[in-house]
Design brief:
seven-stranded mixed beta sheet, about 25% strand, alpha/beta, single chain, about 300 residues, binds zinc ion, about 25% helix, globular
Length: about 300
């Protein structure tokens, strides 16, 4: 599980930062990549990575402002030319289906694979499959904006072969049953309970993605004890009023949420283009005073989400 930031700028692209997009690479887990937002030229950014468009199977759209969706038609179109590509699902606010379909229809773009749309209407679970769940809640932005919490299922502990050695369990279905924590009877009548021979379960990881919003209570529900929180920080600590007026967050609000939710690491993204050089360093410093494990993400930065324990 790895995060790759494809665009980290708010509003308009700058020379150093493109507009919003984030890839959650689940290659070891599902052999898939999930995208969060798709600002203009996201597919150009992807050309600079090892991401293959056909691996992208889900795109989550936080809200319908242009800097978060203008990359969709081009990316969806190019994905058609990557051989035998499978279906793709887009999760987003009302209107995103119309935006995509209208763009494709007017440009007479033919897509070679099925696209499914899931309209976000209320808080709750929107994905539950193959060991992953995704939850969404509405945030507080000028238009409807949604945050996401990706939850990996816990993994059962490994079979403790040393502890099992004295029972000389033959290779095969009996071992499989023990591995699943079930009870088995050996040829000599000995009964073993799998649960007695399993190591500790491994906690699944949680990644929370919060794009455009003011500080609001729903963020804390989505970010509670997340391993990684990706949070917009359009402004620094001195611009609290601007942040409020424009329905955005400051770096310190993001850090306060990270601290309150006891997350593992905070990545700041969606940063206004003016925070470069010393101003960017200052922004990180302000956030770290509240939550030390903070990183200001740059375009094409990659971070592994470590397994707990
Ligand atoms: Zn934005």
């Amino acid at each position: 599980m790895e995060l790759e930031f494809l665009g980290t700028c708010s509003g308009q692209p700058s020379k150093l930062r493109n507009v919003s997009s984030l890839a959650l690479k689940l290659l070891d887990e599902l052999n898939e990549i999930w995208l969060f937002d798709c600002g203009e030229a996201t597919q150009h950014q992807i050309l600079r990575t090892n991401i293959r468009l056909r691996k992208i199977t889900k795109i989550f759209i936080s809200h319908n402002h242009g800097d978060h969706i203008f990359g969709l038609p081009g990316l969806l179109s190019t994905r058609s030319f990557q051989g035998d590509v499978g279906p793709l699902t887009i999760y987003g606010p009302a209107g995103i289906e119309q935006f995509v379909k209208t763009s494709l229809r007017i440009s007479k773009t033919k897509i070679s694979y099925p696209i499914k749309f899931v309209t976000l209407e209320e808080a709750g679970k929107i994905v539950s499959e193959r060991g992953f769940e995704v939850y969404t809640e509405k945030l507080d932005h000028r238009i409807d904006s949604w945050g996401f919490r990706v939850v990996e299922a816990d993994k059962a502990g490994e079979l403790l072969m040393d502890k099992l050695a004295e029972f000389k369990v033959p290779n095969g279905p009996l071992l499989g049953k023990l591995k699943r924590g079930e009870q088995v009877e050996l040829a000599d009548g000995t009964v073993l309970n799998g649960k007695d021979f399993l190591g500790p379960a491994k906690k699944g990881r949680v990644v929370t993605v919060i794009y455009d919003t003011r500080s609001t209570a729903s963020i804390r529900r989505l970010a509670d004890h997340a391993d990684v929180l990706v949070h917009e920080a359009t402004f620094d600590a001195s611009e609290g009023k601007l942040a409020r007026d424009y329905y955005h967050s400051t770096c310190t609000q993001a850090a306060e949420t990270a601290a309150a939710c006891q997350v593992g690491h905070l990545y700041l993204t969606h940063v206004s283009a003016r925070y470069v050089g010393p101003l960017a360093s200052q922004m990180v410093k302000q956030a770290r005073e509240i939550f030390p494990a903070t990183t200001l993400a740059r375009d094409l930065d990659s971070f592994i989400v470590p397994m707990k324990g």
